[in-house]
């Protein structure tokens, strides 16, 4: 604070003819902005306004080691005495003599640009985000790396961040209409054209392994982040699950399941995620369900269902040791296990 007051005092003395600078309530930041900005605009031949392109000028004092200068014992004692006496006055000697110019650096960067779209995940061995445990990769790849790794070069950016409307487990496929996502690219040096984005889409969709797909890839404004989070809270998700039960499926089971509409269930935090999630009770809604037979397999069936966002589907099927009630097992009165799970649709709040 003392240095700031000293700088302001120095500026007022140096620019004594500037009436606006002599006001009592003016900050060093505002003063420097006025004193530096106009000459800078003249030098660069550019205007200063609200823009996604930012220029940061940094002035810093050279280190004592670099200058070979150290404080004298007298200076140290004087400052210590002033501090003990509670003195915080600014004198003409407040600035030490400078023997070398300060260090000046210029940093240019652009505000992030955003890309939206929907992704598909076709593999049961691909995580949504990069997943490393004890220096070992979990899964063959990640949606984050495949999408971001293809979009970033098209922008000539420094880095990217991946955001999605919800997530699926590594062993769950994302099919149907795809899951909405955002890619936030930091300090991009170019904004790719629509044609360039189409080429990125084609490259991802035509990759040899076909682990991930993408559609509707486009560049959008920064307000999209808030819009996606708002829609995510209200979204519905549709699934298809391959289910095994301990007894043969009966005709009455079809009606007992499909007749359940807007079914309220209570889910405690699943055992499998207790190590990273708070132990809470969550009330969720199963909007509708229907059963599809699998010919020649009476103990297996496909369960199609639409649920509220945040419902744990695996636990709804097997009950999670009684931590989810009711469950498919309790509805059918027998043991039930989930073999495979696919997400078939993600509907946002405005859809």
From TrEMBL:
<dbReference type="InterPro" id="IPR039894">
    <property type="entry name" value="Pus10-like"/>
</dbReference>
<dbReference type="InterPro" id="IPR048741">
    <property type="entry name" value="Pus10-like_C"/>
</dbReference>
<dbReference type="Pfam" id="PF21238">
    <property type="entry name" value="Pus10_C"/>
</dbReference>
<protein>
    <recommendedName>
        <fullName>tRNA pseudouridine(55) synthase</fullName>
        <ecNumber>5.4.99.25</ecNumber>
    </recommendedName>
</protein>
<comment type="similarity">
    <text>Belongs to the pseudouridine synthase Pus10 family.</text>
</comment>
<keyword id="KW-0413">Isomerase</keyword>
<dbReference type="InterPro" id="IPR020103">
    <property type="entry name" value="PsdUridine_synth_cat_dom_sf"/>
</dbReference>
<feature type="domain" description="Pus10-like C-terminal">
    <location>
        <begin position="114"/>
        <end position="346"/>
    </location>
</feature>
<keyword id="KW-0819">tRNA processing</keyword>
């Amino acid at each position: 604070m003392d240095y700031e007051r000293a700088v302001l005092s120095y500026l007022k003395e140096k620019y004594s003819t500037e009436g606006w600078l002599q006001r009592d309530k003016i900050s060093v930041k505002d003063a420097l902005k006025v004193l530096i900005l106009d000459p800078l605009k003249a030098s660069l031949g550019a205007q200063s306004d609200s823009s996604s392109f930012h220029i940061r000028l940094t002035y810093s004092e050279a280190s004592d080691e670099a200058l070979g200068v150290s404080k004298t014992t007298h200076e140290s004692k004087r400052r210590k005495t002033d501090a003990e006496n509670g003195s915080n006055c600014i004198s003409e000697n407040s600035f030490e003599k400078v023997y070398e110019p300060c260090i000046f650096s210029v940093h240019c960067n652009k505000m992030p640009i955003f890309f939206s779209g929907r992704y598909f995940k076709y593999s049961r061995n691909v995580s949504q985000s990069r997943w490393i445990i004890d220096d070992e990769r979990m899964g063959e790849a990640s949606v984050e790396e495949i999408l971001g790794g293809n979009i970033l070069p098209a922008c000539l950016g420094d880095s990217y961040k991946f955001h999605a409307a919800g997530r699926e487990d590594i062993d769950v496929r994302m099919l149907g209409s795809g899951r909405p996502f955002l890619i936030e690219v930091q300090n991009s040096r170019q904004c790719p054209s629509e044609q360039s984005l189409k080429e990125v889409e084609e490259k991802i969709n035509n990759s040899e392994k076909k682990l991930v797909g993408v559609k509707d890839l486009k560049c959008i404004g920064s307000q999209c982040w808030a819009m996606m989070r708002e829609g995510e809270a209200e979204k519905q998700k549709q699934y298809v699950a391959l289910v095994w039960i301990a007894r043969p499926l009966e005709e009455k089971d079809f009606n007992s399941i499909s007749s359940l509409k807007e079914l309220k269930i209570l889910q405690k935090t699943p055992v499998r995620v207790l190590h990273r999630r708070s132990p809470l009770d969550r009330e969720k809604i199963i909007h509708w369900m229907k059963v599809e037979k699998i010919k020649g397999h009476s103990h297996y069936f496909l369960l199609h269902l639409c649920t509220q966002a945040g419902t744990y589907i695996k636990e709804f099927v097997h009950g999670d040791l009684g931590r989810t009630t009711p469950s498919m097992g309790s509805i059918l009165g027998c043991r039930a296990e989930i073999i495979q799970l696919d997400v078939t649709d993600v509907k946002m709040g405005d859809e």
